[in-house]
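Reopening this ticket.

The earlier resolution said the output was attached, but the attachment link was broken on my side. Pasting everything inline this time so it's all in one place.
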Amino acid sequence: MSTEIVEQAVQDLKVEEKNLEEQEDVVDPWNVTSSSDAGVNYDKLIVKFGSSKIDQDLISRMESIINQPVHYFLRRGIFFSHRDMHTILTLYEQKKPFFLYTGRGPSSEAMHLGHLIPFVFTKWLQDVFNVPLVIQMTDDEKFLWKDLTLEEANRLAYENAKDIIACGFDPEKTFLFSNLDFMGQCSNFYKNICRVQKCVNVNQVKNIFGFTDADCIGKMGFPAIQAAPSFSSSFPFIFNDRKDIPCLIPCAIDQDPYFRMTRDVAPRLGFQKPALIHSVFFPALQGAKSKMSASDVNSSIFLTDSPKQIKDKINKYAFSGGGQTVEEHRANGGNCDVDVSYQYLKFFMDNDERLEEIRKTYTSGELLTGFLKKELIEVLQKLIADHQQRRSQVTDQVVRQYMQPRKLKFAFSS
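Inline output:
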C-alpha cells in the first residue's frame, strides 16, 4: 500500500472523527444521546435552549441571601442553568412568596439514582427558603407513552411516591398528586389546563415536542397538563385562590421544552412565568453518551438494589476512564471527565476535599480504577440502604396524607 493511500486513509479517519464530534446532541423529554464520551455539551445546550448559565455571581448572591453555603450540586455544576433565578432571589429578599414545583413520570416499580437528583435538590431548596412544594406524578403521561394500563400507571405513581416521600419532604409544606386522581378533585387545575391548551396550536406543539400525525391526540394535549402546576391558581386550597404567586421548577434540562411553552403562554393568561433551575443528566453506567434508563436494569443503579447488586453492577458495567493496563494507567493517568465512577461520586460524595483528592490521584495515575470503584460502591451502598430504611417507614396511610388536597402551613391573603 502506497504512502499516499495510507495518509489519505488517516486523513479521512480524522475527518470522520471530527464530524462525529460535531454531531448535535439530542436532548428532548424522551431522548438524550451524545456522540461524545464526556456526554452532552451543556454550554451548547444553554445557547440552543436560550437559558442562562449559573455563574459565580449567582452562587455568591444566593449564599449572601441564605447566609449559608449553597448545595454542592450548585458548586459542582450539577445544577448549571436557569431561567429567572435572580427574580426568585429578589422575591425572597423582599419577603414575597413563591413556591416550588417538580415532578416524576412513574414508568417503573423502582426509581433509580438519577431520579433522586431533582428531589434531593428540591428538598434543600424547600428547607432553605421555607416555601410550599407541589409534586406532580404524571401517571397519565406514562399511560399515553408506555405500554401500561391506566390502573398500572396509577399504581406506579403511588409506589414511586413512597420513594419521593422518603427523601424527607415536610408533609406540612408538601402536596404530592397523581394527575389521574387530582384532575377530578380540583376543577381549577383542569380549567388552567384548558386555558393553556387553547393558547397552543397543533403546529406549535409539533415543533416544540416533535410530535407527528401518527401520535395519539392525548400526547398533543399532555404538555398543558405539565404546564398547569406552574400556576398558583391550580391549587386554590394552598394559595387561597391567588393567581399571582410565582414558582421555581427544579428539573433536568430535558424537561425545559414544556416550560418554554409555559413561559410563552403565561403572560397571555395573566399568570406569572415560572422560573427554572436545570440539572445535568445522570449518566448510564455504560457512559455519559446516554442518561440512565429505568427500562435497562444494567444501565442503572436502582433504589431497590441490594449491596451485592450495587457492587456487581459497578464492577462489571461502570465505564472506566482509566488505562487498559496498570502500567498504562500509571503512565497516563485516568480521565475523570468520562469515568462513570468519578462522575457518580460528584453527585453523591458531599466531601469536597475527599472528592478533589480522588480527582487528583486518579488523574495522575496514582489511584487505580479498582480502588475508585471500591470508593463509589461504599458510598452508594450506604446511601441506598439508608433510603430503603426510610422508605420502609412510608405506609399507604402516609402517602394518602401527602396526596390529600389540603391547606399547607402557609398563610396567603386573597
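Reporter confirms the inline version is readable. The radius of gyration is 23 Å. The chain has 20 helices and eleven strands.
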